Automatic annotation (TrEMBL):
One of its GO terms (molecular function) is microtubule motor activity. The lineage of its organism: Eukaryota, Viridiplantae, Streptophyta, Embryophyta, Tracheophyta. The keyword Nucleotide-binding applies. Residues 112-388 form the Kinesin motor domain. Keywords: ATP-binding, Motor protein, Nucleotide-binding. Coiled coil: none annotated. PANTHER family: KINESIN MOTOR DOMAIN-CONTAINING PROTEIN (PTHR47972:SF23), KINESIN-LIKE PROTEIN KLP-3 (PTHR47972). It holds the Pfam family Kinesin. This is Kinesin motor domain-containing protein.
Length: 388
């Protein structure tokens, strides 16, 4: 807080205040970010043009000369800072290009498809006797105990042990989020048996949000910190019993309610996938995106089964479409980042499901096996990938 005396002093020497602020910002060069450039631009915008309003009436010739000198100095400082801004903006762009290249090389080296295994903790009331023991051997291998003298080891790009936090999981995903802002299509999905923690990992719980919420936060923050203007749209759907359902469109509850338009998957001319009639809602910040996400989650089909109290009975897909018009160096003008929380594979004998639960389980198993074929073909780089 300034005292009234301080305030008088302040109002008497606005020129010093401006130059001091600018100098302090210049001394801050090591933290060059677009926010820094914006701050300097804002200060310059608020500076009086050529110091014109600093003193409205010259008192005498000496005073006039001294003011003119000060105005010239200020003018020169402003010109110098303008030059610095141009140079720094070019420097930031150059660093961004380098960062993009390094990130791409890094992701290429790690492989286009990366598979992580997260072992979830076993809660006390769960039946230990019937559960097969899974243990992390190291950061990339897990061992599954099949019988007393029989075990099998599986390798992954990364293994998360039962104590791993949501933060640790997200840290591995974050480079993908960055590359999505650079214009690359990306997809993060959770796959596994029912009750193994897919929804916990993707959606999380209120006190410990999962990958989707953390990714949204990261992407909007990085977009604000960048030099570019992005346009985002948010969509969310589920595949239930083989049918697509828009989770952002109210579903009819009464006979008189309008039926929402039918969704259908189309391949666009560039080989990408489009879903006809899927609602895409423009979002400008993370709060809007998370509100829609919460809304969509409420409409998801879940039910209690023998294996999981809140089992997903469908596959849930969230799409953030990213457009950037002022960055020709991006991979694409518009790209998509998909998050998928798949329904869990289940052994019908074990779940003892019947009726609708059984139909849901069968539909989930069937689609997961088709997905397995697709991933296998992609990994083997087969010329035919059985998408349909
Ligand atoms: N890493 C974890 N830490 C603590 N609790 C977890 C963890 N993973 C899962 N859980 C808990 O285990 C239970 C089952 O998890 P979740 O619903 O995420 O399984 P799922 O794989 O999505 O199952 P389904 O395929 O049936 O939908 C939930 O109560 C969840 O909170």
């Amino acid at each position: 807080m300034l005292s009234s005396e301080d305030k008088t002093m302040e109002s008497r020497k606005p020129v010093h205040k401006l130059s001091e602020t600018i100098h302090s910002l210049l001394g801050w060069k090591s933290h060059v970010t677009s926010n820094w450039v914006k701050s300097v631009c804002d200060i310059m915008k608020s500076a009086p043009p050529d110091g014109a309003s600093i003193i409205s009436k010259p008192i005498n010739g000496v005073m006039e000369n001294s003011m003119k000198k000060k105005n010239d100095e200020l003018h020169n400082s402003v010109l110098k800072i303008e030059d610095e801004i141009v140079a720094l903006t070019a420097y930031i762009n150059q660093l961004n290009t380098q960062r993009r290249q390094v990130l791409n090389e890094f992701l290429d080296l790690r492989g286009n498809i990366r598979v992580f295994c997260r072992i979830r903790p076993i809660a006390v009331p769960e039946n230990f006797g019937q559960l097969k023991a899974v243990a992390a051997l190291d950061s990339s291998n897990v061992v599954l105990k099949l019988a007393e003298n029989k075990s099998k080891t599986y390798s992954f790009d990364k293994v998360f042990h039962p104590g791993s936090s949501q933060d640790e999981v997200f840290a591995e995903v974050e480079p993908v989020i960055k590359s999505a802002l650079d214009g690359y299509n990306a997809c993060i999905f959770a796959y596994g048996q029912t009750g193994t923690g897919k929804s916990f990992t993707m959606e999380g719980i209120p006190q410990s949000p999962g990958v989707v919420a953390r990714s949204m936060e990261a992407i909007f923050k990085q977009a604000v910190d960048s030099n570019h203007v992005y346009v985002f749209t948010f969509s969310m759907l589920e595949i239930y019993l083989g049918n697509l359902k828009d989770l952002l469109v109210p579903q009819p509850t009464k006979v008189m309610d309008p039926t929402p338009p039918c969704l259908s998957i189309q391949t666009d001319p560039k080989g990408g996938i489009d879903i006809d009639n899927l609602v895409a809602i423009p979002v400008t910040d993370v709060n809007q995106a998370l509100k829609l996400y919460k809304l969509g989650c409420r409409f998801r089909s879940t039910a209690s089964t023998n294996s999981n109290k809140t089992s997903s009975r469908s596959h849930c897909l969230i799409c953030l479409s990213i457009t950037c018009l002022d960055a020709p160096e991006r991979r694409r003008e518009t790209n998509k980042l998909w998050f998928v929380d798949l329904g869990g594979s289940e052994r019908v004998l074990k779940t003892k499901a019947s009726g609708r639960r059984l139909d849901e389980g069968k539909a989930i198993n069937l689609s997961l096996s088709a997905l397995g074929d697709v991933i296998h073909a992609l990994q083997k780089k087969n010329c035919h990938v059985p998408y349909r």
